[in-house]
């Protein structure tokens, strides 16, 4: 295996930073972090700031419910701890049925869901410069995804927390960039693996071994 020129946490075999029961490697980011920068980040998690409130809520949900709750339930528990009442949902068209179920979960928990579909605005892909041959069904009207408009509509609704439901790679990035509320994810889109992208990693030495082939990846 070729030497990694700039090793990082993925190359560490110790993970001493978690339990302090081993030792740090020479390239450890913890050992080499700027003390002032480290102290500055820790300051965000102390006191009464929104960052501190979120960090403490996340730690509480993890500590109380580790391996006990589903992701959907964890979102409810987290929302309550940060006093989020109105929950925005940025959903993919392909997951609208799952989104409808999730809205029932939120309402049962006493929360207020508000959903914006990825095709909001209903603009044909060609109108933003996408070639006709890049449509899934060429020659027909096919609306482009509009994650910026999704974010802005949820901003106008003044949501307290936004949830991503299967937005495409890149569209989720744009939605997060323009969302004024905090963003978390319930479903990460992976059409090939039933929206469980970790499957490809688990099977990287068998059924999905192509993902480790440089020639294959070069053509993507």
Please characterize this protein's 3D structure.
- This protein is an alpha/beta fold.
- The protein has a domain at 84-189: Rossmann fold, CATH 3.40.50.
- 40% of the residues lie in helices and 10% in strands.
- It is built from 10 helices and 4 strands.
- Strands 2-1-3-4 form a 4-stranded parallel beta sheet, with helices on both faces.
- Helix 4 (50-65) crosses helix 5.
- The mean pLDDT is 96.
Give the percentage of residues in beta strands.
5-15%
Distance between the termini: 23 Å
Describe the global form. Answer: globular
Report the radius of gyration as a whole number of Å. 21 Å
Return the string of H and E elements.
HHHHHEHEHEHEHH
Mean pLDDT: 96
CATH topology value of the domain at 84-189: Rossmann fold
Structural class per helix/strand content?
Answer: alpha/beta
Helix content: 25-40%
Identify low-pLDDT runs. none
* CATH-derived architecture of the domain at 84-189: 3-Layer(aba) Sandwich
Largest beta sheet, briefly?
A: 4 strands, parallel
How many E strands? 4
By CATH reckoning, the class of the domain at 84-189 would read Alpha Beta
Per DSSP, the total helix count is 10
Largest sheet, spatial ordering of strands: 2-1-3-4
């Amino acid at each position: 295996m070729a030497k990694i020129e700039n090793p990082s946490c993925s190359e560490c075999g110790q993970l001493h930073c978690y339990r302090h029961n081993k030792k740090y490697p020479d390239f450890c980011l913890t050992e080499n972090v700027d003390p002032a920068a480290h102290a500055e980040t820790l300051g965000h998690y102390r006191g009464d700031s929104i960052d501190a409130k979120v960090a403490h809520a996340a730690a509480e949900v993890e500590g109380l419910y580790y391996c006990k709750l589903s992701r959907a339930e964890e979102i409810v528990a987290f929302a309550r701890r940060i006093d989020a009442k109105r929950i925005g949902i940025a959903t993919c068209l392909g997951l609208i049925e799952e989104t409808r179920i999730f809205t029932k979960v939120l309402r049962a928990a006493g929360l207020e869901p508000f959903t914006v579909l990825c095709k909001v605005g209903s603009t044909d892909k060609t109108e933003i410069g996408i070639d006709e041959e890049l449509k899934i069904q060429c020659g027909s009207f096919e609306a482009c995804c509009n994650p910026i408009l999704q974010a802005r509509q949820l901003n106008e609704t003044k949501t307290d927390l936004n949830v991503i439901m299967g937005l495409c790679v890149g569209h989720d990035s744009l939605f997060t960039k323009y969302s004024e509320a905090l963003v978390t994810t319930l479903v990460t889109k992976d059409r090939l693996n039933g929206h469980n992208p970790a499957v490809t990693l688990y099977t990287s030495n068998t059924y999905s071994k192509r993902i480790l082939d440089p020639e294959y990846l070069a053509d993507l």
